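Lab meeting, item 3. Inverse folding demo.
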């Protein structure tokens, strides 16, 4: 029975063996199936993602289309502009000047002696003839008295000689005295007359020395610091002097100009023009500070400095307020010509590139156009326009970097609160 069971089992197992023998590669097709399934899933997800993204873009496009022409309308650019106008503008020549007194005097003693008194205060304004100092006059008073005594003696000798001469003139015709004695007496009279003149000169010199003992101001000006104190012995050879006086009112400014600028100035001077000169502080008129003095051109130097190619000019200022101080550096502006009735526009509206000078002009429809222009004189914030812009044209000052030809703008006129907006 065991043999039969064994045979039956072998018969039952033959199909299984057959399946095991033929189905041994079955796991491989199963793995391929899962790989294909994964690929299908990935493709499905990708298709769904791109399909949803496309629908979203279409929806956005539809919304943009529904918004109307706002997106297609041109952008309005805000700008600040100004109107060109007719006006006057000056042609100025600029230079750096040095305030120089017209007169500067170092006061010295003309005689030797002790300084007894100082009659001025440092920094005071003195006038010509005012007493400044006194020198001991007693030695010179004694010298005057001596000279007067000598004169009195020699005058007496002269008078006596003249009496003898008159006597001899009456005796010579009578042959009482020889003619030689008459001639000798006449010569003696002339000698005494010369001596008397010398004595008189000595008296005059002594009187002048007494005048020099009182030192007075030779000019009107401002006193400097005291250089010699009272009690010191002064002489005419002192190099420092007693004090320095500088004229303050009027005062001058000396400044250089290039030789190429000189012809225009000389032409005006020869025509008799009075050229205005404005003085500003060291920061110059560009700083916006007001000018500190106004004067006129006085003269031009007689030669050009060959080392610099400049010529020096002197301008005089009344300086009644004392704004200009000696040796002060100032910026000088010489008005050579004043142009009247020309077209002016703000310098801020002038634009330049490597090819041309231009500006943007606002048209009536609130669009801009690029306009080539020619610039003449530039002065401060204004520029003269010789061509390209007419009076009453509106030119753009700020916001130029965003503009192109026919750009739509919203204009604010410089200095005005109202705005001109595009419709």
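The presenter then showed the designed sequence:
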């Amino acid at each position: 029975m065991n043999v039969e069971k064994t045979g039956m089992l072998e018969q039952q197992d033959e199909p299984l063996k057959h399946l095991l023998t033929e189905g041994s590669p079955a796991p491989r097709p199963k793995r391929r199936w899962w790989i294909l399934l994964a690929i299908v899933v990935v493709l499905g997800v990708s298709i769904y993602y791109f399909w949803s993204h496309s629908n979203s873009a279409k929806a956005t496009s539809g919304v943009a289309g529904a918004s109307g022409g706002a997106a297609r309308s041109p952008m309005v650019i805000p700008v600040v502009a100004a109107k060109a106008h007719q006006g006057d503008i000056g042609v100025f020549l600029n230079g750096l000047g040095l305030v120089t007194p017209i007169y500067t005097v170092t006061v010295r003693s003309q005689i030797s002696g002790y300084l007894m008194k100082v009659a001025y205060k440092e920094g005071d304004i003195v006038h010509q003839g005012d007493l400044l100092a006194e020198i001991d006059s007693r030695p010179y008073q004694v010298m005057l008295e001596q000279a007067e005594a000598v004169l009195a003696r020699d005058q007496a000798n002269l008078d006596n000689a003249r009496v003898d001469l008159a006597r001899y003139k009456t005796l010579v015709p009578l042959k009482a005295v020889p003619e030689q004695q008459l001639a000798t007496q006449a010569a003696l009279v002339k000698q005494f007359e010369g001596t008397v003149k010398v004595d008189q000169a000595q008296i005059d010199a002594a009187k002048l020395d007494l005048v020099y003992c009182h030192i007075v101001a030779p000019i009107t000006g401002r006193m400097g610091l005291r250089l010699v104190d009272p009690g010191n012995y002064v002489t005419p050879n002192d190099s420092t002097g007693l004090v320095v006086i500088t004229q303050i009112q009027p005062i001058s400014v000396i400044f250089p100009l290039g030789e190429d600028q000189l012809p225009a100035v000389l032409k005006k001077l020869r025509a008799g023009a009075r050229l205005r000169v404005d003085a500003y502080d060291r920061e110059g008129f560009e700083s916006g500070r007001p000018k500190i003095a106004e004067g006129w051109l006085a003269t031009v130097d007689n030669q050009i400095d060959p080392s610099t190619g400049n010529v020096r000019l002197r301008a005089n200022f009344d300086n009644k307020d004392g704004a200009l101080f000696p040796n002060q550096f100032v910026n000088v502006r010489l008005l050579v010509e004043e142009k009247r009735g020309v077209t002016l526009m703000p310098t801020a509206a002038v634009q330049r590139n490597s090819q041309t000078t231009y500006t943007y002009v606002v048209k009536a429809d609130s669009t801009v156009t690029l306009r080539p222009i020619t610039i003449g004189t530039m002065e401060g914030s204004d520029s003269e326009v010789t061509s390209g812009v007419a009076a009453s044209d509106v030119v753009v000052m700020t916001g130029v970097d965003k503009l192109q030809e026919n750009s739509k703008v919203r204009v604010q006129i410089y200095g005005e609160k109202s705005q001109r907006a595009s419709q």
